Here is the input.
Amino acid sequence: MGKDTDARLAEVMSSLVRHLHDFAKETQLTQAEWEYGIGFLTRTGQICSAERQEFILLSDVLGMSMLVDAINNRRPPGATENTVFGPFHVDDAPIRQMGDNITLDGKGESCLFEGRVLALDGKPIEGACVDVWSDNADGFYDVQQPGIQPKWNNRGRFFTGADGRYSFRGIKPVSYPIPDDGPVGQMLGHLGRHPYRPAHMHYLVTAPGYQKLVTHTFVGGDEYLSSDAVFGVKNTLIAPYEHVTNGDTLWRSPFDFVLVPI
Ligand code: BEZ
Ligand code: FE
Here is the structure.
């Protein structure tokens, strides 16, 4: 590297090259395997588009996304843990009123999600934005089925008042496969891995003066909790789902989010 190379770039690149060479030496990589790897990366790039990011999916199924997230979001005890963001968030979802129903297609088992956004000392946070999104009862996000699902189905933003409380109705999410019709799906197949994620509700919780929280709550008992295709499960994020019968609402899932000051 040139003597004027940025110090961080030099550190990252020399480590990357050292580990790449170690990998080839350790496995005694054959010429054919090297060519296969180049072909795989080429196909991964070629399938990328404005709607599809196969390289992030590759990072997700290799556990790299969760590792980078863990390195960069060390939280003190009591704070809610981060997990993978995923490709299905959409900016500027409709702002809804507390208690509103985000499920616009009428499918699925209705669930009340409620809790508080708190600081580490237990005080409620006013003005926090709770941005939520989930798949529908068929296991697809609205953006995967334009023209089939209503726009903004199972999405919304909720702003907390002085009590820090949020509440909305959605559905008890269902497990679903990550997009597996491309090179990453083929790789999972060759490795004998399934493409499923355990059922979860996504949350992006932001508040002035606090670190951004990117997380999910998972449905306890899901068959894929111990084999999430993208390694996103953390035990602290498994939420209760209590059976209730209140009108047509079948479930209640309480969960508090605890944010860390900047
Ligand atoms: C998701 O949960 O939406 C997701 C995360 C990583 C890869 C694909 C989907
Ligand atoms: Fe998801």
